[in-house]
Automatic annotation (TrEMBL):
Residue spans of biased composition, Acidic residues class: 142-154
Organism: Cryobacterium glucosi
Localization (cell): Cytoplasm
Protein name stated in the entry: Ribosome-binding factor A
Function: One of several proteins that assist in the late maturation steps of the functional core of the 30S ribosomal subunit. Associates with free 30S ribosomal subunits (but not with 30S subunits that are part of 70S ribosomes or polysomes). Required for efficient processing of 16S rRNA. May interact with the 5'-terminal helix region of 16S rRNA.
Pfam families: RBFA
Record key words, sorted: Cytoplasm, Ribosome biogenesis
Family to which this protein belongs: Belongs to the RbfA family.
Amino acid sequence: MADPERARKMADRIKVIVAKRLERGLRDPRLGFVTITDVKVTGDLQHASVFYTVYGSLEERTDSAAALKAATGLLRSEVGKNITARLTPSLEFIADAIPENAALIDDLLREARERDSQVGALAQGAQYAGDEDPYVKPREFEGDDDDDDDEDETPAVGHHAE
């Protein structure tokens, strides 16, 4: 197993190589506006997972995924020319779900804000169902003050007074 630092450096290098090659363009018209977001290399440096996002519609994402799959061999040979490793890792392109997850989180936060405002509106005119303070409080008697002094004078059972 390779050094994790070496795997990280190789992943960074592969990310730059693939991004630059895509920037120069491929001959595939299906390829849309692709951004390489991350690369993960296995510990033995034999396989690289390339994460990407595509700006555009679902159809453009599907077409770009097909274009990247078709160009995997070309991109792998480009990586092989530009890294200093005995073996060139195989490449796998994986669509990154960051934009979809961000949109989902935004929707959930918006829904939570709406619900909070609804609850706040309901609380404005709300009244207590019972007493304002429903907790039972200990009763206080006026004659209880004398009992505290007696405890100090009388020894507890089983103890000898000194």
